[in-house]
Amino acid sequence: MPIFYKKYIKHRLSLKSQTTLSNLRIFLLDLIRPIRTTRIITKILGPQYKRSIKDIEIDITYDCNLRCFNCNRSCRQAPSKENMSLEQIEKFIKESIDKNIKWRKISLVGGEPCLHPNIFEVINLLLNYKQKFSINTEIYLVTNGLMKEVLEKIPQSIKVINSAKEISAQDGFESFNIAPIDLKKYKNKDFKNGCRILKDCGMGLNMYGYYPCAVAGGIDRIFGFNSARKHLPEKNDQMFDQLNTFCKLCGHFKKHDVINSEKMSKSWKEAYLKYSTKDFLLKSKSTKLTKY
Question: Is residue 48 part of a domain?
Fold first, then answer.
């Protein structure tokens, strides 16, 4: 969609009209997706979505003070207190500067980012990157709004997106834990196509490294593939190997379906069971996933 058209929609149409157009867009994309994601069409047209080189979501923590159904970071299904270190944030900034990458948008997400023990230090590091190297970069904090005492101290230059969640059932959450690989109609799809998250949210970074999207990083945390890039990918790295690995497990690859209950397919049930066992936590988890 041309930039001028996006600006026109944003400034001239009511919020209700914008929502209607957004829903229409999702409907049309869902309509063509079964054909668009087939291997033969993908071979002809190329992947439907490509990983972003302008935007990035950083999962600075998987700790969360809510337990939402169908959480695509598995904060409810597999709770964790894992946090990114300040050294990892510094490494990300250094790599960005060394490769002359001036991000359009950096989003701090999780988990609940306000639960990170060094949230203000993380913000200050990113603000320093913005002020000294990439003045046009927009820095976002995506929160559920429950940590009011922290939010009151967030610098005004940080754009806060408050989802205002309070309960486990979320109206906009999809069936994340229904893996396409467990459904017969997705057996022959080309998972290099990704989904709209690549375009809408950007690539991902967590304590293990870089992914085509942050959701993929959350999947890796559970399955332990250790597929993260340990250094900032080059612009021509489309990360197709990761898309093939993670999209077949991600419910977002499927048709847009919003549910208010928690549902899981076989692959996810087995993965969570393995993750929760003492043997996996003590042995496999520490050896399979290496830090960024």
Answer: no
Same domain, 23 and 111: no
3-state helix/strand/coil string of the chain: CCHHHHHHHHHHCCHHHHHHHHHHHHHHHHHHHHHHCEHHHHHHHCCCCCCCCCEEEEECECCCCCCCCCCCCCCCCCCCCCECCHHHHHHHHHHHHHCCCCCCEEEEECCCHHHCCCHHHHHHHHHHHHHHCCCCCEEEEEECCCCHHHHCCCCCCCEEEECCCCCCCCCCCECCCCCHHHCHHHCCECHHHCCCHHHHCCEEEECCEEECCHHHHHHHHHHCCCCCECCCCCCCCCCHHHHHHHCCCCHHHCCCCECCCCCCCHHHHHHHHHHHCHHHHHHHHHHHCCCC
Residue 184's domain comprises 55-288
- 47 lies in some domain: no
pTM of the model: 0.88
What is the number of domains present in the chain?
2
Q: What is the pLDDT of residues 211-247, one digit of tens each?
A: 999 999 999 999 999 999 999 999 999 999 999 999 9
